[in-house]
């Protein structure tokens, strides 16, 4: 697989940051334009497996560069 163009364009010593989005909300906020979904239940095992798979894939594209920060976002912000 070819490297991610955004990672390849960065200088080798430029730190990488990771954003992990949680798209499941208690309610959909009227101002929200993000990928989000209101669900009665979430299959946590399937979600965890997909997240870990995606993280492993992205790690192969990073060339072993370390992360300088990890951000978590999404969900209903008032909770």
TrEMBL record:
GO terms for cellular component: cytoplasm. This is Coproporphyrinogen III oxidase. GO terms for molecular function: 4 iron, 4 sulfur cluster binding. It comes from the Bacteria. InterPro entries: Coproporphyrinogen-III_oxidase, rSAM_sf. One of its GO terms (biological process) is porphyrin-containing compound biosynthetic process. PANTHER family: COPROPORPHYRINIGEN III OXIDASE, RADICAL S-ADENOSYL METHIONINE DOMAIN-CONTAINING PROTEIN 1, MITOCHONDRIAL.
